[in-house]
TrEMBL record:
Residues 1-23 form the signal peptide. Gene3D superfamilies: Ribonuclease A-like domain. One of its GO terms (cellular component) is extracellular region. It holds the Pfam family RnaseA. PROSITE patterns: PROKAR_LIPOPROTEIN. Residues 29-146 form the Ribonuclease A-domain domain. Keywords: Disulfide bond, Secreted, Signal. This is Ribonuclease-like. SMART domains: RNAse_Pc (SM00092). It comes from the Eukaryota. Belongs to the pancreatic ribonuclease family.
Length: 148
């Protein structure tokens, strides 16, 4: 009996490890999801001292050549964003999913350029977000809208 139990536990551990490997391979091979995370996820929120958060983040994330007009950073863990593609979100319209929960979001709006640098207004608050998901359930697009 003990041998059968050990084999079952070993099989369960193996299956769990295999599913993690497969999930990480899918994640690593999804360039649209990687781009989504680079442009829209900042968790935990980066602490910026002495400078404007948006100006620093937009520069660090490569969205200042040319200056991107609007971009939002969601301060939520990866799994919380992914869950919007299933149980933590509802169908909104077209292929968009609306988060059920309010999330911490910083929206950066271009105010102009100064000395060749993009300058942004920073607005932070709690809001629902709209995203698109690929057929595998990974977030791939953030719908920039401030109506929520």
């Amino acid at each position: 009996m003990l041998l059968v139990l050990k084999k079952r536990v070993s099989l369960m551990v193996f299956l769990l490890m295999a599913s993690c490997v497969i999930a990480s391979q899918v994640f690593s091979q999804n360039p649209r999801h990687k781009k989504f995370l680079k442009q829209h996820q900042d968790f935990p929120q980066t602490k910026v001292v002495g400078h404007d958060y948006c100006t620093v983040m937009m520069l660090q994330r490569g969205m200042t050549r040319p200056c991107k007009n609007t971009n939002s950073f969601v301060h939520a863990p990866h799994n919380q964003l992914k869950d919007i593609c299933s149980w933590a979100g509802t169908h909104y319209r077209r292929a968009l999913r609306l988060s059920k929960a309010l999330l911490s979001v910083t929206t950066c709006n271009l105010q102009g350029t100064a000395q060749g640098q993009c300058q942004y207004w920073t607005q932070t608050g709690q809001q629902q977000i709209l995203i698109s998901c690929d057929p595998s359930g990974w977030p791939v697009h953030f719908e920039e809208s401030n109506f929520m």
